[in-house]
Known about the structure:
The protein has about 210 residues and is mostly helical. It contains ten helices and no strands.
Amino acid sequence: xxxxxxxxxxxxxxxxxxxxxxxxxxxxxxxxxxxxxxxxxxxxxxxxxxxxxxxxxxxxxxxxxxxxxxxxxxxxxxxxxxxxxxxxxxxxxxxxxxxxxxxxxxxxxxxxxxxxxxxxxxxxxxxxxxxxxxxxxxxxxxxxxxxxxxxxxxxxxxxxxxxxxxxxxxxxxxxxxxxxxxxxxxxxxxxxxxxxxxxxxxxxxxxxx
Length: 209
């Protein structure tokens, strides 16, 4: 029985893997949107965040055929910061008749690690001009992005599978300390990411006045 139990841990179903990946990408994309609204010239990064979160929504809604297009959009949205090639391992997970084949796991893991590493390395550049509590909150959001991407990479290690909490659950999101008040409904029913990014920019301008 023990061997079978280990095999179950080592090899999640495609559905489980997509759900776990979707939950991590949703948080990473959502926080990326927060960072983008707070930094100078964050529009491109915001578009990447929107596309990542849209891809995650498709994953969580069991609509994986639309995931690849959103990931491709994420890949071309902020190439000045995140090279398109760094997304390829994620994009390729959805280029087959059946999604997330094991033959692409190594590349997907590399993609997630490279995206996390690059954002960490560019932190000082991204935080340029930000000071005090405003800077701290923005750094905190960026840290969530890099941690979630790095953690998601472990999903593609043998035995590395885990199931994160669903970020679209208001109770979980309300407990995320430093962030803004969560939306009452998952994206799709309420404010679009673009509208919310604009609202956040307006709120940030007020915060600085």
